[in-house]
Amino acid sequence: MFWPSLLKRSRFRSVAVSISLIAIASCGPIGATGTYANEQSPSDFMELRRDGTFYVEEEGVGYSGEYRIDGDVLTLTLASGMAARGQLDDGTIVDDEGERWVRTP
Questions:
Q1: Structural domain contains residue 12
Q2: DSSP category for residue 30
Q3: What contacts 23, CB < 8 A, 6 or more positions away?
């Protein structure tokens, strides 16, 4: 009786882990990766990378760090600990100042 029970639990765990990984992949950074341009200043851009890091260039100055996504909230954090937030909305990011960053092809 021990082995069949153990096998059932192992299969359940495998299915649960697979479902969790799919959920994380669809909601995590991978879905938002890409390059975004500022609608008001198209030479300003933001790159969200698959590894959870970002690079932003505004007015010729570059910033980099790590990003996190919680639901539809994007948080960019510099190594110094300073953070900026934005709302994700179907290929667009609206930053704290209301500026829109649109995903580029």
A1: no
A2: G
A3: none
**Residue 50 is part of a domain; what is its CATH number?**
2.40.128.290
Could you tell me how many helices (H) and strands (E) the chain has, helices first? Answer: 1, 8
Rg of the chain on CA atoms, in Å: 19
54 falls within a domain: yes
Tell me whether residue 19 is in a domain: no
96 domain residue, yes or no: yes
CB contact at 8 A, 92 and 85? no
Is the pLDDT higher at 6 or at 90? Answer: 90
User: pLDDT tens digits for 13-61?
Assistant: 333 333 333 333 334 456 899 999 999 999 999 999 999 999 999 999 9
Q: Give the model's confidence band at 81: pLDDT under 50 very low, under 70 low, under 90 confident, else very high.
A: very high
Reduced to 3 states, what is the DSSP secondary structure of residue 33?
coil
Query: How many domains does the chain fold into?
Result: 1
Give the residue numbers spanning the domain of 70: 32-103
Q: Which residues pair with 74 in a beta bridge?
A: 69, 86
Q: Supply the pTM of this predicted model.
A: 0.70
